[in-house]
Sequence to fold (307 residues):
Amino acid sequence: MRSAGASPGRTFGSIKRNWGLYLLLLPAVVLTILFAYTPMYGILIAFKDYSPALGITGSPWAGFKYFEKFFNSYQFSNTIKNTLIISLYSMITFPIPIMLALMVNQMRPNRFRRFFQTVSYMPHFISTVVMVGLMMILLSPSTGLVGNLYGLFGKEAPDLMGSAGLFSSVYVWSDVWQHVGWDSIIFIAALSAVDPSLYEAATVDGASRWHKIRYIDIPMLMPTAVTLLILRVGGLLGVGFEKVYLMQNDLNATSSEILSTYVYKIGLLSSQYSFSSAVNLFNTVINFILLIIVNQISKKMSENSLW
Fold:
């Protein structure tokens, strides 16, 4: 990595000395430029009255017309509010993978530990479509697991998939169930790098298991946790499209309409390409600003930051 005070000559010399490493890096750089940066040219659609017949360059400029249209639309406050509710709710669950990793790290014997890890990872490999299908079956108030449990006590089960007030809870906790095991892998990997001599020294000093977790494990996890937290805040308005769209119905529409589903509907279903691009660009800009702010705050408060 080039230091802040390195001259172009030293940088070129470093590249020349390590040309083999840069050659290995070249395919990744080319793919990134082709598939991550070249499509950014399409951002221009948000500032134009785009017509497929005229193309991006031939379409007339529209300025910020579509941004103003979104800010003045009745869906603006609703989509922003719903997206923020789901995102902030998901942030509350951020410590759960850390707690799971700490628990797995304390498990003995190793055979039980491997079995527990395998069981917790498996839901991650279920596709979103199958997961939502399972949720519809299990949460059905008439024939599902929830309906039968309520039936045992002679009560009527609530329609969890059709409740606007419970939509965010169903979305977030089903997401926790599906991904918590997978998300804990990186923390388990961080714990595996802890020097065993630290535990031995703590044992000699009479430290209990809780003391080892508090004074050895948690401090070792903090850099990884802060980095992942910064990345998550940077995607605060980037709630995934597929699961929310599949869970949507007429009964929960008021709380399930988020930015990504709105972009899909106006862009692909209504063919308002410029409008949907403007909404999506607004979403990306807000996420980028949040990422920079949180990274700077983390940089000032601790030694952990992305750059």
